[in-house]
Amino acid sequence: MRPSLIIGNWKMHGSLDSVRQLLTAILAQSESMASSTRIGVCPSFVHLPLAREILSGSSVSLGAQNAHAEEQGAYTGEVAAGMLAEMGLDYVLVGHSERRQLFAESDAEVAAKFLAVQKHGMQPVLCLGESLAEREKGISSEVVLGQLNAVIEAAGIEAFARAVIAYEPVWAIGTGKTASPEQAQEIHAAIRQRLAEKDAEIAANTLLLYGGSVKSGNAVELFSQADIDGGLVGGASLAADEFIAICNSAD
Ligand code: PEP
After folding, report:
1. Ligand 1 pocket member 233 (CB < 6 A)
2. Cβ(234) to ligand 1 under 6 A?
3. What is the pLDDT of residues 10-25, one digit of tens each?
4. CATH for 4-248, among 3.20.20.70, 3.30.450.20, 3.60.15.10, 2.40.50.140?
5. Can you give the residue ranges of every domain in the chain?
6. SS3 23
7. How far apart are the first and last CA of the chain?
8. Mean pLDDT, residues 67-83 taken together
9. Which contiguous run of DSSP H or E holds residue 94?
10. What is the per-residue pLDDT across 123-142, written as a single tens digit (0 to 9) for each?
11. Under a CB-based contact definition with an 8 Å cutoff, are residues 85 and 121 in contact?
12. How many Cα atoms within 13 Å fall on the side-chain side of residue 182?
């Protein structure tokens, strides 16, 4: 039985004050949660020290939204995986569709980031997803499995024993449009099948999260699908009540 995991992706939102308030509220509410769902949050880089301080000793995990693949060097404005590891992080998102689209990250760069994050002892949350045009062409699985293959080829299937995968259809991120539970399950099953072709045990244990306009109103149905083990939540993770309601839907 796989545990459920919900990770909040706070993107480029928040201030020192609002991050403090949000984390304090999430912590207070998570302590009285009935479900055993694991919770994580990914604030912006600059809010990580504050988040680490507030979350210290709690069961809420901390992650970053991106990392550079190189150890160090002349990469102005970037943050290396090793620097993030020093912050005691659990997770780093890699290949989020906003990184792939807005910052032109290729499959090869995503794979390099995945490796760098693992090298420094953190778990990559590998984000995969097709665009609306690709869905309309009927090539969703092909696109998503192509993105997955690029990382399997670079890192090996064994690496997925220490990674999380998030299926996030690009057309559902921040749009209010959610994949139907059946659409999401179909792609999750294809991802698990691809992992199983390489290693059945790893496939059975890898957590597959769904992301794309998850809210408390659609979470139960999505999370009840056989291959959906939780969610990567953007907008709805910025309000503690809503985020905890989503976490409570995942048991
Ligand atoms: C995300 O950014 O990973 C995401 C899923 O966003 P939203 O929940 O707002 O669609």
Report:
1. yes
2. yes
3. 999 999 999 999 999 9
4. 3.20.20.70
5. 4-248
6. helix
7. 11
8. 98
9. strand 91-94
10. 999 999 999 999 999 999 99
11. yes
12. 0
Tokens of residue 213, six digits: 């306009």
Q: Looking at ligand 1, which residue's alpha carbon is closest to its atom 2?
A: 234
Rounded to whole angstroms, the Cα distance separating 248 from 42 reads: 19
Report yes or no: 210 and 194 within 8 Å, Cβ to Cβ: no
Cα 48 from chain centroid (whole Å): 17
Question: CA-CA distance, 197 to 28, in Å (whole number)?
Answer: 42
158 burial via Cβ count (<10 Å: 0-12, 13-18, 19+)? exposed
Residues labelled as active-site residues: 96, 168
Measured distance CA(163)–CA(125) in Å, rounded: 6
Q: Hey, which of 44, 173, 216, 242 would you mutate to test ligand 1's pocket, going by the most ligand atoms within 8 Å of its Cβ?
A: 173
Residue 202 confidence class, pLDDT cut points 50, 70, 90? very high
Q: Residue of the nearest CA to atom 6 in ligand 1? A: 234
**Dist CA 232 CA 173 (whole Å):** 10
Indicate if ligand 1 lies below 6 Å from the C-beta of 9: yes
